[in-house]
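Hi Y.,

Following your request, here is the sequence exactly as I used it, all 237 residues.
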Amino acid sequence: MVEQMVSIGGPYLGVFLVLLACSLGLPLPEDVPLLFSGFLVHRELAHLALMIPVTMAGVLGGDCILFALGRRFGHHIVEHRYFRRVVNPPRLLMAERLFQRHGVKIIFIGRFLPGLRPMIFMAAGVLRVPFTTFLAVNGFAACISVPTLVILGKIFGHNLDKITSEVRTVTHFIVLAILVGLLVTAAVYFHRRQKRLMAATGVSPEAPPDTLAHLPPQAEPLSPESEPQQDSAAGER
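Below is the corresponding structure, written out as C-alpha cells. Let me know if you'd prefer a different format.
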C-alpha cells in the first residue's frame, strides 16, 4: 500500500508537494508528512541523505510563500479571491502582536507552534522583516525540527516492524512506547505554550475576517523599508 502511495512522482516529489500544500491550506500539520517521510526511509523507499534536504526544501519553500504573500498583500490578502483561504485573521493579528512583544525571535519559536506557525511567517512578511533575517532564523529552527521528525519517523517504523514480527520481544515495545510518550509530551507542552502566547496577545479569537483589510499591522515594521502597502494589492483577483 505504501509503495502505491509513493509510486506517482516518486517519494521525494510526493513529500515535497505535500509539504508545500500544507503551507497553502491543506488541513494537515506538516509534522505528519515529515514523520511519514522517515517511515518511507525505514521501508527503503527513500534515502535519508536525500529525504532530509527534500523535506527542508518543502518546509522552507512553503514558509517563504507565506512570507511573500504577507509582504505583497499585507492585510488586503483577505480580499484576494485565491489567497484569502490560507489566512486565519485572528491568528494573524495575534502573530503580529507577538512580533511586537518578542521581535524576530518569535520566528524561531513559531517553528515549534503548529497552530500559529503559518500566520507567524505571514506576519513576518506583513511587518517587512528582512527576507535574509527571516530565512536565517527560520532555517536554523528548521535544521532542528525537520531532521528530528524525519529520523523519529524512521525509528518509529523500525520498532513498529519489530513489534509486529516479534511479538515476544518486549524491548522494542518499550522503546516504541517511550517514543510515543515523548511525542505526546512535546505536543502537550507546545500546545500549552501556544495557548499562553495567544492569550497574552489580547486578540479575540472571534475577530471578524471582514475587518482585517481595514486594520493596520499590530506592530511597527521591523525593517527600514516601511513604505505602506500598495492599494493595488486589494480587490478581487
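The radius of gyration is 20 Å.

Thanks again,
Q.
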